[in-house]
Amino acid sequence: MNLDEPGLPIPDMPGYVYVFRDVGEHSNEIKVGYSIHPKDRVRQLHRSGTVWPLQIYWLWQVSNMKLAEKAAHAALEAHRINPRREFFEIAPSPHFNLEERHNSETTDAILWELIGDVTEAMSILQIEYEWEDPRGDN
Known about the structure:
Layout: E1 15-22, E2 29-35, H1 38-48, E3 54-62, H2 65-75, E4 87-89, H3 98-101, H4 104-124, E5 129-132
Antiparallel strand pairs: 1-2, 1-3, 2-4, 3-5
Helix pairs in contact: 2-4
């Protein structure tokens, strides 16, 4: 059984909650979800679910994927693009103008704050986690 397949129940087991960032013309968008193998998941999404390639921007290795993903989505709810999808706008309109939404310095700073919000939500729920910065900034 591939636990990274969409539609399968999210297990109450250790794994990762990830932030994948769009590297195409939609760099103001992120996908936040769970996976046991985030590198495989990002490749799978590009083959089947996204037009532009995504990059692994941030990872939390967590003790409970189901609870951690729910905490992440709750922390980011005001940024959600579609209530049925796991995609979020980093700098949502109308709070940010078009220039700000496509300025990498602006969106990088906001995304860093959003990562902090997700981390705080996990801490409040006492979810055990270790963060990983695959960009090499940690």
